[in-house]
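User: Here's a structure from my thesis project, written as structure tokens. My advisor, Dr. K., wants to see whether a designed sequence matches the one we expressed. Can you design one independently, without my sequence as a hint?
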């Protein structure tokens, strides 16, 4: 009697991968069916039983098992060759790609995105240029052409007519006058609640924080100042954002350079920053307010430093009140100013800058500077 065909012993990684595909499903029905065959064979099922389970031929089941024993999980993605000639020409494939990347509403369909089944049905029923293509062939064509299922992202253009001029002035202050340039912004609102994140813990035993539903402590805002040349950061927590608080921060920045020479302060277009009294005080005290363009607060250098502040003091925290949170923020600022070149801090800064650039699609400092007045 011939020996029963069965998969070799699965490794831990192979077993987890096959279980994940069978439980969660797959975008490819071929991967799903083959994973079921292998997992069932590992469980002791015979080829006839597996064939009835996946509605396939017994020889197909045996071929998949033999192939797995030879090359491992690579058999889940077969590379078929031969067979009948291709039915689609190059122009047909281009038409399929063009249709797949077109919103269905533009061709009169009442949905916002294509599924493989809907796209294949639309191509087959197209009156102008009908194309008969199966779902797996369509899936393979999209994969070969680099068309994948991706999450939609939003974007926003700045309507500021002085967009380039404001960015040029900020670049001039940062690159030509760093020792006299400061950045100011508010961070918040900050509520008293457990903030989940990640930390080192035994496997499958993560640190747990209690859930809160009644938050009676109100909110605060962190008013932060950053010195470009000194690479120093300081700030204070306030109950709200107002002109008086911004004014106090600007006076603190002015006091950091008591020689009376002009200084530059980069800040966004919050109404508390653009008030006429603020501008009049700044002109009188030789403080040039460099406002970021509309919808471009990413141009403020302090934004990248708020990332580590959030990561190392707010994430994975459970502060009982605002006083404890303020102590934690100030303790971090003291550590940060003392260890400004610490590797962990530099990694967090690079990660935050990369996040800002990826969200805005803009690499800071990429344009040549114009001659500043």
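Assistant: Designed independently from the structure alone:
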């Amino acid at each position: 009697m011939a020996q029963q065909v069965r998969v070799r012993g699965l490794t831990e990684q192979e077993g987890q991968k096959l279980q994940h595909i069978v439980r969660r499903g797959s975008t490819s029905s071929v991967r799903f069916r083959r994973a079921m065959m292998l997992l069932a064979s590992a469980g002791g099922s015979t080829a006839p039983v597996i064939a009835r389970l996946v509605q396939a031929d017994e020889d197909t089941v045996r071929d998949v098992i033999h192939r797995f024993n030879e090359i491992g999980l690579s058999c889940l993605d077969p590379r078929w060759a031969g067979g009948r000639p291709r039915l689609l020409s190059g122009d047909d494939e281009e038409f399929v790609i063009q249709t797949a990347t077109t919103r269905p509403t533009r061709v009169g369909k009442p949905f916002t995105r294509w599924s493989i089944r809907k796209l294949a049905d639309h191509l087959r029923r197209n009156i102008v240029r009908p194309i008969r293509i199966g779902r797996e062939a369509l899936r393979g064509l999209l994969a070969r052409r680099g068309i994948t299922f991706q999450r939609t992202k939003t974007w926003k253009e700045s309507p500021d007519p002085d967009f380039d001029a404001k960015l040029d002035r900020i670049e001039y202050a940062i690159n030509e006058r760093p020792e006299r340039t400061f950045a100011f912004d508010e961070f918040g609102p900050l509520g008293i609640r457990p903030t989940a994140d990640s930390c080192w813990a035994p496997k499958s035993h993560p640190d747990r924080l209690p859930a809160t539903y009644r938050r009676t402590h109100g909110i605060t805002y962190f008013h932060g100042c950053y010195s470009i040349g000194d690479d120093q950061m300081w700030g204070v927590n306030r109950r709200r954002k107002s002109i008086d608080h911004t004014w106090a921060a600007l006076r603190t920045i002015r006091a950091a350079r008591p020689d009376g020479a002009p200084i530059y302060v980069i800040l966004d277009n919050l109404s508390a920053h653009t008030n006429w009294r603020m501008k009049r005080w700044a002109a009188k005290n030789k403080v040039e307010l460099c406002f970021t363009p509309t919808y471009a607060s990413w141009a403020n250098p302090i934004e990248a430093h708020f990332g580590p502040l959030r990561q190392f003091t707010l994430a994975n925290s459970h502060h009982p009140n605002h006083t404890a949170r303020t102590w934690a923020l100030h303790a971090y600022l003291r550590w940060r100013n003392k260890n400004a070149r610490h590797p962990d801090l530099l990694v967090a800064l690079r990660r935050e800058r990369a996040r800002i650039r990826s969200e805005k699609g803009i690499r800071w400092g990429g344009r040549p500077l114009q001659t500043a007045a």
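When you compare it with your expressed construct, this may help: The chain has 14 helices and five strands.
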